[in-house]
Structure prediction request, 329 residues.
Amino acid sequence: MKKIIVTGSCGFIGFNFINNLNSEVEIIGIDSLNNAYDKKFKDIRLQNLNKLNNFTFKHINLSDIKSLNSNTEIFENCDSVIHLGARAGVRQSFLDPEQYILDNTLGTSNLSLKVKEYNIPHILIASTSSIYGDTGSKLAVENEDELFNPPSVYASTKSFGETLAKNILSDSNTIIQISRFFTVYGPYGRPDMSILRFIHWIASGEEVIIYGDGNQRRSFTYIGDIVKGIEKLVNNKSNGTFNFGSNQTWSLNEVISIIEKKLNKKGKIINKDRAYKDVDVVLPSLQKSKEILNWEPTTNIEKGIEKTVEWYKEYENSLMNLNYKYEYE
Prediction:
C-alpha cells in the first residue's frame, strides 16, 4: 500500500482529491482547520473523510515547526506529499498579510524541510493563477509569464513558497511539481468564492453582491477536472510547473445568468465598488499540460454549475445557515 500525505485535507480541493483516491492508498490528512472562511465547511468535509477506512487525520499547523516535529511518524515511509494547504483570497491577504506569510510561505518551507529530511521522493505543491496577474487576451505560460512583482499579498506568498521549496529541495532527488489552479468551483467549494456564493444567495433569496459591473472574466474550472489533473500529474512524475484551468472565460454576469436558469429563480443583484486589486481576466496556456499530461478540462460551465446546484440542493439544509459574507465586505 502506498502512503501519501495530503495537506489542506479539509479544504475544497484536498477533500475532493482524497475522495477520489484509490482505497488501497494510505492517506494521512493534515489541516489546521483555520477560520479563513466559515470553519463549519471544513468540519462537514472532515466528517465525510473520517468515514474512509484508509484515512487518518492530523490537526497540524504547518507554520508551527514544533507541531510538525511532534508528528514525525507521518513522514516515515511516505511515498508522496500533496501540498494543497494554503490560505487563499486576494482581498483578505491585504488585511492580514502576516497570516498569509505564515500559512503560504513558512508553512511550505517547513513542509519542504521535512520532505528533504525523510527523503520523500515526490512533492506536489498547489499554486495559483494569481501569480500571473491580469493576462488580458494573452495566455499565461508557465515559467514565462509569472510576475516579478505579483499583484497581491496572496500571490506573493504563494510565489515565494514555490521558490523556497525549490531551493530547499534543489540538492535532493525529490521530484518537485507545481500545479497552478485557475478559479476552481464545484461541490464542497469555498463559500468566499463567487459561484457557490451566487448559488446560495439566489437560492435563499438574499442579495447577490457583485463587486464591480460583473463584466470581469474568469477561467472557471470544475473541481472534477482539477482532480483529474492532479492525478495525471502525480502519476506522470514529471518535474516542473503546470497550469490547470479552463481555456475559456466567462464573466460574472454570465455565470449568474446560468445559475438563475438552473435554479429557475432570479437573483436580487446589488453592484458595489470593484474589489481591491481585482483583475479583469486570467487565461491559462494549456499547451504543456496537454502535451505532457494529456490533460485538458472537459466539463463545460453549464454542466459544472448544474452539478454544483444539484449538490447544493441535496445538502441545502446543512449549508443554508453557514457564513457566505465576511466582516471586510
Observations:
- Residues 97-117 form the longest helix (21 residues).
- The chain has a mean pLDDT of 94.
- The chain has two domains: 3-184+223-244, 185-218+248-281+298-319.
